[in-house]
Specification:
The chain is mainly alpha-helical and about 350 residues long. The chain has twelve helices and no strands. α6 runs parallel beside α7, α8 runs antiparallel to α9 and α9 packs antiparallel against α10. About 10% of the residues have low confidence.
């Protein structure tokens, strides 16, 4: 039936094309013929349609050829905005919306300064565990445990660190039994050696003075007498009377004064005390610089977070570019590093 009225169907098709090319038209006559009803999605729906116009080059068909060209020109004015036909997975859509909701809540808490009280999700806990592992694995002092301003995440990270430290302490206690046995064995060996050297400590004061005055054995006598003095003080400190200890100290003091290299030893001691005091001062300065750098880094991070929160309300703030305050904090950090 449609083939019998092909010219009428083509006429209705032209009306549909004209209606689609005019943006002001609100009604498109698709229902005037079967052809336009079938081609409804292709003409004005979510489709990308190509039209092929056939014309004859014969001079006798010039009128029909011009009419076909005009019709093609009108069809070219019709523009369809075709979109990909896709179906979203409800689970993926829910996960994406939840993630966007969490981001918006964090931005809101950052802007208002309020802390959230709800429980952490499994994804947030997993991200905290990964951040703690990275922080512990980093060997440098500049490592930062970045958990944002969420107090719940900070507390959860502290719990993880506490659990790790407790596990390390338990492992050391479990593996320390064998080491304790070795320490006891070493102490017993030293005790036996001290018992063997006790007869040497019972030298008389005259023998000690004779060994001191012997010039051919000066250095060796000094070492031996020093060992004798130390071992006697360690082994029989509470057993011997006060008079014997005093006599031994007097003998050692007399030997120390008559020793030829005593002045050099005193000078080395003074130099060592001086170096120690200088090293202590330098260590204190290093600790002060390290603490100052950590404080400046904390201020810099807090300033960046505050600036990011302000940029949410004030669009004129560009967080990709550093301002004068941030540059000053960076310069202060570099200055403390070069001290």
């Amino acid at each position: 039936m449609e083939a019998k009225y092909i010219n009428l169907s083509l006429h209705y098709l032209e009306q549909v094309i004209i209606a689609l090319s005019e943006k002001s038209r609100s009604h498109v006559p698709y229902r005037n013929s079967m052809m336009t009803s079938v081609l409804r999605d292709s003409l004005g729906g979510n489709c990308m349609t190509n039209m092929i116009a056939n014309i004859a080059a014969d001079i006798t068909n010039i009128g029909e050829s011009m009419s076909t060209c005009r019709f093609s020109q009108r069809v070219a004015l019709v523009k369809n905005e075709a979109l990909v036909n896709e179906e979203l997975d409800p689970q993926l859509l829910i996960a994406r919306l939840r993630k966007e909701t969490l981001q918006l809540k964090e931005e809101l808490c950052l802007a208002t300064g309020e802390q959230r009280t709800d429980e952490l999700t499994e994804e947030e806990k997993a991200s905290c565990v990964e951040a703690v592992k990275i922080y512990v694995a980093c060997k440098t002092d500049e490592a930062i445990l970045n958990t944002g301003t969420d107090l719940r995440k900070i507390q959860f990270c502290f719990k993880l660190l506490k659990i790790m430290i407790c596990n390390i302490v338990v492992d050391k206690e479990c593996t320390g039994d064998g080491e304790n046995e070795q320490v006891l064995e070493a102490q017993q060996t030293r005790t036996d050696a001290m018992k063997q050297t006790l007869p040497v400590t019972r030298l008389s004061q005259k023998e000690t003075e004779a060994s001191v005055t012997d010039s051919s054995q000066g250095d060796s006598c000094y070492v031996r007498n020093e060992k004798v003095e130390r071992s006697s003080n360690r082994s029989s400190k509470g057993d011997q009377p006060e008079s014997s200890r005093t006599e031994r100290q007097d003998a050692f003091e007399q030997f120390r004064q008559t020793y030829p290299h005593n002045s050099e030893i005193e000078e080395k001691k003074k130099l060592l005390r001086k170096k120690y005091s200088e090293a202590k001062v330098v260590g204190e300065r290093v600790n002060e610089s390290r603490n100052s750098i950590n404080k400046l880094k904390g201020k810099l991070q807090q300033y960046r977070l505050t600036r990011a929160a302000r940029s949410i309300a004030d669009k004129s703030i560009d967080i990709s570019q550093t301002d004068a305050a941030e540059e000053k904090l960076k310069d202060d950090i570099e200055e403390h590093k070069t001290r």
